[in-house]
Write a structure and sequence with these properties.
By secondary structure, the chain is α/β, with parallel strands linked by helices. The protein has a single domain, classed as Rossmann fold. Helix content is 47%, strand content 16%. The chain has nine helices and seven strands, in the order H-E-E-H-E-H-H-H-E-H-E-H-H-E-H-E. Helix 2 packs across helix 9 and helix 3 crosses helix 5. It is globular and about 50 Å long.
Amino acid sequence: MQFKIDDIEGIAAKFTENGLAIEKDLILLAGLPGVGKTTVAKEFAKQTNGVHFDIDEVKRQVVPKDIVTEDIDPPEYRFKYYAETIRRLPDLFIENPSQTVIIDETFHLKDFRELWTEAATELNIRAHWVEVVCDEECLRERLHIGRNREAHILGGDKAFPMYLRFKEVFESMTQPCEVVDTTREIEPQVQKVIKKKAIGGKITQSSR
């Protein structure tokens, strides 16, 4: 399976700036449903003053509701909402002083993780992969309680069965990545990643 974004040059053109070039950081949080990706994403946004984009906004427009809640959406749908989100990146960065955007998704397939990495390279954005993990018993308890999932695209009794479906097909992370374990305190783990990767908008060069 190989998907390509055919208008990547047009997207890159939107990043053209007059004057100073600013280093842009894209934090991509991968992991199984229910492990706490959105909670971690919000912590990254808090610590970096970055923008957390909820990819579910795009997913709801592209994927039929019954597929979203009952099965893993097919690759052709997944590519559509990934590509549409990548097309929105210029707007997400344009008024973001920290030049940091955070996106959380399962990103369970290697080919699609490569799609994002390649797109970031084409757009001259630093991509930082973070795998979010959680002990399964702890996760089961969280999902049973339904904590913080009222607005999630997979709420209620749909979450744990979907977790098990994704667990069967999740392809191991092969690219360099950091790990955040949500059974432990999240704030210091996020802080460590930010410091290690030097995340945060910086002036890198002049276009003059």
